[in-house]
Amino acid sequence: xxxxxxxxxxxxxxxxxxxxxxxxxxxxxxxxxxxxxxxxxxxxxxxxxxxxxxxxxxxxxxxxxxxxxxxxxxxxxxxxxxxxxxxxxxxxxxxxxxxxxxxxxxxxxxxxxxxxxxxxxxxxxxxxxxxxxxxxxxxxxxxxxxxxxxxxxxxxxxxxxxxxxxxxxxxxxxxxxxxxxxxxxxxxxxxxxxxxxxxxxxxxxxxxxxxxxxxxxxxxxxxxxxxxxxxxxxxxxxxxxxxxxxxxxxxxxxxxxxxxxxxxxxxxxxxxxxxxxxxxxxxxxxxxxxxxxxxxxxxxxxxxxxxxxxxxxxxxxxxxxxxxx
Length: 325
Hints:
D-Maltodextrin-Binding Protein, domain 2; alpha/beta; about 325 residues; 10 strands; five-stranded mixed β-sheet; single chain; 11 helices
């Protein structure tokens, strides 16, 4: 091999290695003095929006950088998620999302991103019980009253969009209770809940954090929580399982994700920072008020959990007869 050819191959090798080297060097001094964008793929007022803002504010204080929340709602959370999947994996664009992240690949067959392979799980904020809400004007006293009505007349239920966690929680409950109902999707949780409070839609299953203020004001009546155990936020409210509806519980998590190629050192740093702030008493107090229950996992466990949930959600979709897009 002549000298010029050896030199050409050396330069080519350096060119290939350069991106990896630059990413490693970039990660070493993260975060620099620049804004961090946190995309929430649902509208303001949704459970993930409320919880995400609590965590983002505390995280910004810990790392000494401004974190700007951007709500990019629509299409069951896929619009905002797609934006993050395609962003530069440099630790300056993050995704704050919920359980719907593992529902979307089941609902939408032609997604512009891969819900698992295009993202790295960073940290779970915790689990939020979903609460089944109706308008007080409907006259229901118990969840059994609602089910009895649903078996004589087809009811409607709202959600934050097809494939959202609020959609899935309601479907899970409906299947267990054995009745049919018409799904009415909206762009966000607040719009969904508003339609229930006005009585235009019969019920919804939404995160306690999104519904609590309206419950306190008497504008929304809770009939049960669709979680394995009662919520400390509503300790006198029965679970759907206690009410007699087997396998009606739905695990509604909230957490932080990053683009998959984000340097591992940044993912680990973010995980450590979020884990530390979640243990802070002042943050715990705010999250407890939103019904958040701790569910710590490592980034690797988070990734594995998402893969497992996608498989489980395929089964729910089949049972619910949900149409895919």
